[in-house]
Amino acid sequence: MDRYLVALISVYAILSLGKSDLNFSTGSIPVFILPIAEGPEPSVSPAPDGETVSYRPGRKTGTGSAAISAPARTISPRLPICGFRRVSLLSMIRATGRTPQSPSSGSFTSLEDIRQSAGRPVVVFPECTTSNGRGLLRFARVFEGYNVPVKECNVFIMCTRYNPPTIFQPSLTHPIPSSAFNPLYHLFTIASALSPQSMAVRMLPLSESPSSQLFVVSEVVPDLVVDTLSEVCAILIARIGKMKRIGFGWEDKVSFLDLFSGRRK
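and the corresponding structure tokens:
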């Protein structure tokens, strides 16, 4: 039996690893999994060099607005993914906008164990959360341990781009989870819109994917990284989707959601 691994990148991209072509027309329902990770500490330590985002409005030289600068924003350090938990499609939809669950929430296992026992596509979110669709979040190290080119299975990369929202067209993205019955209110907003939104789906040819034995890693990722497959996928998705990669990850969204919920109280 062919083994598959499908990775759904937030609301943007799909990766699929399998011995044969990706085909959902056979009626095979994918296996959905949620990432498990320890949450960031309340006081986030400064990130390593190169992971500080600063913003300076106005001209770089001169007076007036050029002299105004905003304080640098420190990106949270990348946290390891402990494992994954197999869930239903309904549970996956209800988790939209949320961040990884903690290990104390229940049992979990490794991605490779799930892939070997699934026998059908497995869906995973390397961003480990959702955003507003304006850019590609930093990928978590969900594929750590896989070598590139991947020999165990095929890798299919798909990207979905969404149009920006307008007055009559709400955004299809759902970055902030609802406090109750998530994401029912968001689905109602989309369904009741006067004009439906559109999206574009792009897929990377299998011959150019990280599972192709002709794939040259150094042409995509020149430097050595901990999780090569995740970095390769992030770069390829940004290329085919023409999306900007941002340095923030799900760890930063945890702090944002805490701040957002605190202001609503």
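(Above: one complete record from the training split.) Residues 4-45+73-264 form one domain.
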